[in-house]
User: Fold GIY-YIG domain-containing protein from Eubacterium limosum.
Amino acid sequence: MAPDTKLGHFPGYQNVSLKHKDMQRIINSDEPSWKQALSNVKGGYVVTDTNNGSLYIGSASGSVDGIWQRWSGYADIGNLTGGNKEFAEIMKNKREDYLINNFQYSILEIFDTKTKIETIIERENYWKNVLDTKKHGMNHN
Assistant:
């Protein structure tokens, strides 16, 4: 199936803001420039529910394939939640394609792959506090 938009080359970390369908297409087609860029960094990201403005702050702190690996979980057509309990609850209470039609993925900050997990988690918690996503968003931890 041909993509409706040409996603093109990786635009730089500060310019990443992808609708779920586009993120899924990039991951599933193993788009080389995106895969290389996202695999080479750990980082913090925000998922926005464009239907209601609710935010979820997440992080990719694993030592293999960085943000690419984490977002691959969300792109998996068999389980679009990436193992996220809140996303699973949303899917259960709304249409099955809700995440695909309403979620947008953006990078907040990036780190070298050698950055310690604790540092990434500290920064994730920083963003959760700044954006108040535990009280007014989709973070529950």
Notes: The longest helix spans residues 117-130.
